[in-house]
Design goal:
- With 102 residues, this protein is an alpha+beta fold.
- The protein folds into two domains: 37 residues, no CATH class; 64 residues.
- It contains three helices and four strands; from the N terminus they run ββββααα.
- The protein has a two-stranded antiparallel ribbon. Strands 3-4 form a two-stranded antiparallel ribbon.
- The chain is globular, with a radius of gyration of 18 Å.
Length: 102
């Protein structure tokens, strides 16, 4: 989280949070230090990861039943990649639009 004074000169503070994602390893210590992602990019990154995984699991094409199977796999193995919202399956179908035959 970053905190800094507003540019207007008043005493109010601006607070902006960042999500830290794994992926960058510090060469000197070998520790995963993560990388900062702007909040508006998190959803795009999640969708890209989901689409990449789907294409990897179904390289020869997929149908609607494969989306359902993939949703179940995500629930068990990568719940962090499930779309936010009450109906994750419907949101997942939208995320995967164009990658499967309905």
């Amino acid at each position: 989280m970053r905190i800094w004074p507003r540019a207007t000169g008043d005493s109010a503070l601006v607070i902006q949070s960042f999500t830290v994602r794994p992926g960058i390893v510090d060469a000197s210590s070998g520790c995963d230090i993560g990388r900062s992602v702007m909040p508006d990019r998190v959803e795009d990154d999640r969708r890209d990861d989901v689409r990449r995984l789907f294409r990897h699991r179904y390289p020869d094409g997929a149908g609607a039943i494969d989306v359902l199977t993939f949703h179940a796999w995500l629930k068990r193995n990568r719940p962090d990649l499930l779309p936010p919202g009450a109906d994750g399956y419907e949101e997942l179908r939208l995320d995967l639009a164009g990658l499967y035959i309905d």
